[in-house]
Amino acid sequence: MPAHRSNFITRLSVALAVAATVAMPGAASADAQLDKMRAKIAAFIADKMEKLGGSRIVYKVDSDGLREAVVANLRDDAYKILREGRIAFSGLAIRDGGVEVNIPDAKGREQLTRKLASAAEGLPTHALTVTGSGDGPIRLAPTEAASAARLHELVDDSIAMIEQRLKDAGITLASVQPEGADRIRIFLPGATEPERITAIFARKVKVGFRLVDLSMPAEQAQSGTPPAGTEVLLGFKDDKPYLVAKDSALEGDDISYAGPGFASGTKEPIASFRFNGRGTRRFAHITAENVGRPFAIVLDDKVISAPVIREPITAGSGQISGNFTLEEASSVAMLLRAGSLPGHLGLVEQQVVQPAAKP
């Protein structure tokens, strides 16, 4: 495959990851440009499929799992606001795709809805409808537009994850495109063993936040026997050894958002993330108990960063730096999102397309 074409596909993968997570002026124009780039790649790959044959694979994202995760996060966020605001409530529960709760005090109801609206500001995927008033329960539920935006975001994140996994496996001649609202189509010219490709996606991206063990140098543990309950993992960029706990204190399911950006002071590329309500509480508790200790952020058994906990972190958000390029920060953010993807990719179809047959 010509180098310029390979670079073109790589740049597209990065652009898709950035566009899916960064809100910026002219977003509609950027989306249109990405659609054109996708179309060019699809046309190029379709031509190769006709000449070489290959594999056609179709996946379906877990839309049911997405809805369950969105509503569960909404319940956790509501609980956090109610407890922190000392708002009297009862009957907080998930019902029929939404969250219901009894709040006798009108000011308490207004405070909850105002804080939820503030948290969703600028995030169309988090828009809510609030119904009910008076002494009865109020009901919180994602708007139809928010649900559609979430599904679109899930498909985009899944595409970015698939592209990254293919790239990691050394497969650069591929087209990964959305098909309908919840499906993803993959064309792989020249590949006649689709089972080998689908095996790449059989496992979920592993995201973990693990405490670093300081009882012995990591190099000593690497050449000897690590303490019980620990293991040695290598750094993402420098292959530096880290001695970390085997069990994660938090995992990808606790992340509600991740995206690339720039540090406010140095302007270096970073990956920022935000926890859901459950993750925020757990992160606050863990950081309060481990001030002064390093905390490793691990993606697929590679340590991305291991900052020292300076103080309890209660805001539920953070950022990852590590002398990243913008491409690397985008890839890290994409992997964080992939680790938080609900459910799994369901294999709908895999077939071998013969040469001279149009896919």
Summarize the structure.
By secondary structure, the protein is an alpha+beta fold.
Question: How would you portray this structure in words?
Answer:
With 359 residues, this protein is of the alpha+beta class. Helix content is 40%, strand content 26%. It has 9 helices and 17 strands. It has helices spanning 3-19, 27-52, 63-84, 106-120, 144-168, 194-198, 218-223, 277-289, 326-339, and strands at 54-60, 90-95, 98-102, 128-131, 138-142, 175-179, 183-189, 207-211, 230-235, 241-245, 250-251, 255-262, 269-275, 295-299, 302-305, 317-320, 346-353. The strands form 4 sheets. A 6-stranded mixed sheet has the order 10-9-15-14-8-11. Strand 12 and strand 13 form a beta hairpin. The chain is globular. The relative contact order is 0.17. Mean pLDDT is 81; it is low at 1-28.
Secondary structure elements and their pairing?
Blueprint: H1 3-19, H2 27-52, E1 54-60, H3 63-84, E2 90-95, E3 98-102, H4 106-120, E4 128-131, E5 138-142, H5 144-168, E6 175-179, E7 183-189, H6 194-198, E8 207-211, H7 218-223, E9 230-235, E10 241-245, E11 250-251, E12 255-262, E13 269-275, H8 277-289, E14 295-299, E15 302-305, E16 317-320, H9 326-339, E17 346-353
Parallel strand pairs: 9-15
Antiparallel strand pairs: 1-7, 1-17, 2-3, 3-5, 4-5, 6-7, 8-11, 8-14, 9-10, 12-13, 13-16, 14-15
Mean pLDDT: 81
Spatial strand sequence of the major β-sheet: 10-9-15-14-8-11
Number of strands: 17
Unreliable stretches: 1-28
Question: Radius of gyration from the CA trace?
Answer: 22 Å
Shape: globular
Please, how many helices? 9
- The helicity comes to 25-40%
